[in-house]
UniProtKB/TrEMBL annotation:
Coiled coil: none annotated. This is MBL fold metallo-hydrolase. SMART domains: Lactamase_B (SM00849). InterPro entries: LACTB2_WH, Metallo-B-lactamas, Sec-metab_biosynth-thioest. PANTHER family: ENDORIBONUCLEASE LACTB2. It comes from Erythrobacter crassostreae.
Length: 290
């Protein structure tokens, strides 16, 4: 996980990344969002799509509208419904009359402790995109790529005209994605990484961090990293059965204390996946190999 770079950051500025893509950084930096959530405006002068409108922050909504300019918003598209991604969809739709299109709604009911951004319960899409379905505008086509794992409703969007893929939180430009049960699922996440590895996208535009210009190389490394974590967990369980918290000091050296909860949930996701595969067993809050 990379450290947050020193300021100034381009918060609120419309940055042109490629002819059909502009990026606007929201003012919500944190240990989980890096310098903030990045909203993308796809299209040119006639009509555009807004991907991951971000938090319901008036300044960010105004900055997004400024980036759109005189164009019509044909669709407000959300990769998933964490609170830093989709809450601006409703006020932006109210301002413009644009439909909300993309991932399915999700309200997670759980009493488990959470370390990631909470889910957005206000999200109400006008159209849910299934894997392979498209949204079209003048000179642009966005195809939904289902990538469950970080959340069960996560989608990426492929810009067919340029070979770019908007990866939300599934693949980020600064850190591996946090997978938090019960909605986050490590088995699904790994399968989704394999799915992206088989694609031929040229560049990834993530919701957090820089553009990823060697996507296959990065995804291959992410798959290897997760397999390494799984092997660490199996080795530690073979040494002795242990509670989730006991894995963290051995697996995450020098971890920011603010991220301990996230690390515990990620280890839990691995353990639940190992349990499903018959390789681990939970007994009175202690995990052991099967």
């Amino acid at each position: 996980m990379a450290g947050i770079p020193p300021k100034p950051w381009p918060t609120g500025e419309a940055e042109l990344l490629e002819p059909l893509v502009r990026r606007v950084l929201a003012p919500n930096p944190s240990p989980y969002t890096y310098t903030g959530t990045q909203t993308y405006v796809v299209g040119a002068n006639e009509d555009v799509a807004v991907i991951d409108p971000g938090p319901n922050d008036p300044a960010h909504i105004d900055a997004t509208m400024a980036a759109v300019g005189e164009a019509k918003i044909a669709a407000i598209m959300c990769t998933h419904t964490h609170r830093d991604h989709s809450p601006a969809a409703a006020p932006l739709a109210a301002k413009t009359g644009a439909p909300i299109v993309g991932c399915a709604p999700l309200v997670l009911k759980t009493d488990l402790p959470r370390a990631d951004e909470a889910f957005d319960t206000t999200y109400a899409p006008d159209r849910v995109l299934e894997d392979g379905e498209q949204m079209r505008g003048t000179g642009w086509t966005l195809t939904a790529v289902a990538t469950p794992g970080h959340t069960s409703n996560h989608l990426c969007f492929a810009l067919e005209e340029s070979g770019a893929l908007f990866t939300g939180d599934h693949v980020m430009g600064w850190s591996t994605s946090v997978v938090i049960p019960p909605d986050g699922n490590m088995g699904d996440y790994m399968a989704s990484l394999e799915k992206l590895q088989a694609r031929e996208d040229i560049v990834y535009h993530a919701a957090h961090g820089a553009a990823i210009t060697k996507p296959k190389q990065l995804v291959r490394g992410m798959i290897g990293h997760r397999r390494q974590r799984e092997n660490q967990i199996l080795r530690l369980m073979r040494e002795k059965p242990r509670a989730v918290s006991a894995f963290i000091p051995a697996m995450y050296k020098g971890l920011d204390e603010r991220l301990i909860g996230a690390a515990e949930m990620s280890v839990t996701a691995h353990l639940l996946d190992l349990e499903k595969r018959g390789m681990a067993t939970l007994d009175e809050d202690v995990w052991r190999t099967s």
